[in-house]
Amino acid sequence: MPVAARVQRALHQVRHSVAAPARNPRMAVVIGRLLALAFLLCFATGLYSHFLQNPAPWMVFPTRPVWIYQVSQGLHITAGIACFPLLLAKLYTVFPELFQSPPVRSFTHLLERASIAVLVSASLVQITIGLLNTYQAYAWFDFSFRLTHYALSWVIIGSLAIHIGVKLPLIARYWRKRDSYHDDGSVLERVDDEDDPDAALDVPDELRRLTGESQTHGVTGRVFAWIDKTPPPADDSADARASRRGFLTAVAAAVGAVVVLTAGQSFRLFDATNLFAPRKQGVGAQGLPVNRTASAAGVLESAVAPEWTLAVSFGGVREVFSLARLEALPQHDVVLPIACVEGWSQNAPWRGPRLRDLLDAVGAPADAHVRITSLQERGGFGVTEMQPEFVRDELTLVALRLYGETLDIDHGYPARIIAPGRPGVLQTKWLSTIEVIS
Known about the structure:
The structure is a single chain. The strands form 4 sheets. The protein has a 5-stranded mixed sheet. Strands 5-6-10-11 form a 4-stranded antiparallel sheet. By secondary structure, it is of the alpha+beta class. The chain is about 40% helix and about 15% strand.
């Protein structure tokens, strides 16, 4: 027997051995569109977070509703976690398709298989490092998480677009349930590339005799080897239908479990069931979670130094504010969330002078763009920038108090920034200077 025939026969046997009622085109399309929706949601919310932290000069961001970033990033992390069971389910449904012979039948087929390889590998890396980041497991990263996460998002979306483009005829064929079943209720099984003459195979007589199976497709008028071109017949017994329903139920239960057991860090509705997320509402200094402590930032001494002051400057004008002078300014109360890129968030009441009042003291223009510097010696975002829409917002404060009490040092004592619609990493703690840069 020729080597090619042996390989084809072996792959045929493998495909039969891994066949299952839930491994059919209709199920692959159902799971695939849920996974694609999760990917697109992650991509859109991820871009929003990325550009908030790295804005282009022309970008302007909304400050209302005040919880816009809280919800956006909560959806980003929750959808990312949901991708784990969805991606595994998708791989399960298409597993027999790995055993095709020949491995590449045409350029289109090569593009399809390459896009799938890139999509799957990049997706597994992306969701894994994303999950580790929510736990701040940075010791695992010997690379820039933010840059890698951003770059991989484009790789995933690009390969997903190619994959959908190549598979669009198949997706359209099995998109609706009523088009995916015969009149007797049995699953309409896929016949690979029956409309693609480039995918036709010349079946050796010896191989045809060995298999004893072939079928003729009138569309192309060519003979296709059964062992290459079609999966094994579907089992449409009551047990098979129950198995398909059971598979969907298991996938729904897995997605529901990972969401319900972790989304409480982002959404108070699920707080009672938050068993596995790294942050829990109401737990932390002053009843508010903390990402970077004063010890980790290296400010245990500088933040409590009696000579601490906050310097505000514009051009040649410079005003120095002691803590007592800040407290003597008109104080305002706001309820705003701390919403971190790791996905957790919590609303809290803050009190302090408005940032725009401090800038008015140095004659800053209404469209001032400012640079804010922290006392912190370690960690990222020690220096941040704020666009005019946030600077002049009446809810943006130099916060001095939290829940009616002096800020805990882990929350930024003696003063921190709090603004609507901003990531937690940009709500700078342990303020040192505020400089108008444009």
